[in-house]
Write a structure and sequence with these properties.
Keywords: Coiled coil. 72% of the residues lie in helices and 0% in strands. With 286 residues, it is mainly alpha-helical. It folds into three domains: 136 residues, no CATH class; 30 residues; 56 residues.
Length: 286
């Protein structure tokens, strides 16, 4: 007598899943199988995700063994019962004994083309499969399903802004848009150049002030040294020579400064005269 195998899904549902698993992507077939088995929250519920993976692995193994639909359903039922045994808290030894007992009861020398029974060779392969899957991680499965995990939930109110999409009739021609982008680019480059020039000018001014300050300090130190009263005739002679050299240096500095001012003024006058003529020549060319 054939035992009932269509417990967790129907024959048509199993056909559809096998077709999806070969023709569609894994996400589509996983969603379909989750809907059949009642794991609709598997994307957010870790335990449902583990059950779904376990079920899909068992069905994939049945497909690799070229089991028919009835034998595939029987294998799924066997694997599902083992998982329930694990979740129920049974020891590994008890679970292995249960698996051995069920496989022996389903073993037949000649099980037929597609029945809920297995040949001795099939039983050996099934035993090896579960030994390296469920039984290899038995205590881990029990830990996942029998240990309560801490859960912290947070709620918050969020303000979702709706983007304002401009009307089509407010659009501007591409050439005008390109011109605006170019204008902004030129303006940005000009601002960056102006900022760089200002920074350079500030640095130059600071350097000039530092140089002038050092000169003033050196001059003050030199004058303070010359102001000291000489102690010997030799020091008096050196002081007179130094004073004379300092006076000549100041005279030369004054003369050079005056000449520099005159040259700068001449350059400014030449530049001022050159500007009108350049503008006039540009007007003639137009």
């Amino acid at each position: 007598m054939t035992k009932e195998v269509w417990i967790y899904f129907s024959e048509e549902q199993l056909k559809d899943y096998i077709r999806l698993s070969t023709e569609s992507d894994s996400a589509t077939s996983a969603d379909f199988l989750a809907g059949i088995l009642g794991f609709k929250d598997y994307r957010f519920e870790a335990r449902d995700a583990i059950k779904l993976d376990y079920a899909s692995y068992n069905l994939a193994f049945a497909s690799e063994q070229n089991f028919g639909l009835i034998r595939t359903a029987a294998l799924y039922n066997f694997g599902h019962n083992l998982l329930l045994t694990c979740m129920g808290g049974a020891s590994l030894a008890d679970a292995e004994a249960t698996a051995k007992s069920e496989l022996i009861s389903a073993c037949r020398p000649k099980p037929g083309a597609d029945t809920p029974f297995f040949s001795p060779e099939m039983v050996a392969r099934i035993g090896q499969y579960f030994a390296r899957t469920l039984f290899a991680h038995y205590r881990l499965y029990q830990q996942c399903f029998n240990t309560e995990q801490d859960l912290t939930e947070y709620t918050d109110s969020l303000l979702v802004e709706t983007p304002i999409i401009p009307l089509f009739n407010e659009a501007i021609p591409e050439a005008e848009w390109i011109a605006q982008v170019e204008e902004k680019r030129v303006q940005k480059e000009a601002e960056e150049a102006s900022a760089a020039a200002a920074a350079a000018a500030a640095a130059e001014k600071a350097e000039l002030e530092r140089t002038e300050r050092e000169k003033a300090e050196a001059h003050a130190a030199r004058m303070a040294e010359l102001a000291k009263k000489p102690g010997t005739l030799e020091e008096a002679v050196e002081k007179m020579v130094a004073l004379r050299l300092e006076k000549e240096r100041e005279i030369l500095a004054t003369e050079y400064k005056s000449k520099e001012d005159i040259l700068l003024q001449k350059l400014e006058n030449l530049e001022a005269r050159a500007r009108p003529s350049t503008v006039a020549e540009a007007g003639k060319k137009k």
